[in-house]
Amino acid sequence: MNCMEVCGGHVDGSRHLQRPGLDVSISSHSQQDIDAGGGDLHLISSCASGRITRMLLADVCGFGPLFRDLAARLADVMKRNVNSIQQTRSVRQMSEQLAAASEQGGFASTLLSTYFAPTRTLSICNAGHPPPMVFRANAKRWELVKHYHSGFTPEPVAPGLLAPAEYGHVKLSLNPEDMFLSYSNSLTECRGKDGTVLGVAGLKNLLEQLDTAASETIPQRLIEVIRGEHSDNLLKDEATISLCRVTNHRVPWKDNVLAPFRLLRSVSDRTTFT
């Protein structure tokens, strides 16, 4: 992945990206035709210097061209805000696109996060998505991300929609080797060996059993473990897991020098849909 770029989309497979201060590993398993009911969407953007990495994970429900239309609009939101450290404007624009999709009969839950490498801070906005998890390297344990607050003034919205004031917001301070994991709704709906629904607690329990070494393989290993729990798991459902590991990688001097010139050109769009 390069600076001033947005990538991701609806793809099947695994990929590993290195950005300043952050390694990103994603495993996506696309099982259905997005025109026949929607699916998972993941987007990643990098600013002109690479200091700002923004990630969006969405579970989109909708028929016909709605998925592609909403994906294109959300990718445009990522491009317009690629160099903004704060994600307040991104959240509001994202909310506008979700509202527009609802008028067409669609719905999406989203998780938007922004990592700023110089301060090692991660800003999270959760709009109806399962809670992400963070691994604290010093304590060697996984934790659910809780204690959200609202960052917006209440305002009226269409029935069935979450207003921006209802989104959960939190900012985390991270250290090298800490990890942040986000995932699809479908994973919490899978079943354990005893046939009961995993839920968030069950998913966390499976995650805690995985070795945290070779972190880039954790998303794929977790999916394999979930499939092994019950024969019905993820047979037809989409599944996406994104894991970010904090590193000490600095912005290369070349990217610092070229950043002002990159601001003069448009953001590259490398999103793909299968």
UniProtKB/TrEMBL annotation:
One Pfam assignment: SpoIIE
GO molecular function: phosphatase activity
TM spans (from-to): none
Keywords, ordered alphabetically: Hydrolase
This protein's record includes keyword Hydrolase: yes
Entries under SMART domains matching the protein: PP2C_SIG
Domain of life: Bacteria
Domain PPM-type phosphatase: 21-246
Ribonucleoprotein as UniProt keyword: no
Protein name: Stage II sporulation protein E (SpoIIE)
Organism: Roseimaritima ulvae
